[in-house]
Amino acid sequence: MKNSSPICVDASFVLRLLESVSDRGEVEQLWRRWRMEGRRILAPALLVYEVTNALHQYVRHGLLSQREARQALQSIALLQIEIFHNLSISQTALSMASELGLKATYDAHYLAVSQQLGAEFWTADARFGKGS
Asked: What's 38's domain CATH number?
């Protein structure tokens, strides 16, 4: 039986996905499998801001042109990630950040979406591991 639980992805995962499209990496293979299985892909609204900032940093450091960054940002819409935000998610993130001893609530927002919507959490961030 296929797993039908939703997936919550963070900005590091989406950035790795955008990078891997040309080389058919592990992240893209996971993405394709999830889509074939009909899994819902979720993220907090923060995802768009974090990806935008990362793309800006790539431009600043000469890793991407402004045009390439804009194209990458536009491609996020094609991923059809369901974006969630409400005060409850932020309140949960605030509590989680304190409980986990995090310096900021950013990562906790992804965890809060995962918890509230019963989603698996996936990241490319080495601090959290591959997925949970």
From this structure: 3.40.50.1010
Average pLDDT along the chain, 132 residues, taken 10 residues at a time: 82 90 76 94 96 97 96 92 94 97 95 96 70 40
| Residue 1 counted as domain residue | no
Instruction: Say if strands 7-9 and 82-84 run parallel, antiparallel, or are unpaired.
Output: unpaired
pTM for this structure? 0.86
Are the CB atoms for 110 and 10 separated by under 8 Å? yes
Relative orientation angle of helices 66-78 and 46-60, to the nearest 10 degrees: 160
Q: Does some domain include residue 101?
A: yes
| Residue 2: inside a domain | no
How many Å apart are CA 91 and CA 121, to the nearest integer? 18
What is the gyration radius of the CA atoms in the chain, in angstroms?
A: 15
131 falls within a domain = no
Q: What is the DSSP letter of 7?
A: E
Q: Tally the domains of the chain.
A: 1
Q: Are 4 and 118 in contact (CB under 8 A)?
A: no
Question: Domain range for residue 44?
Answer: 7-121
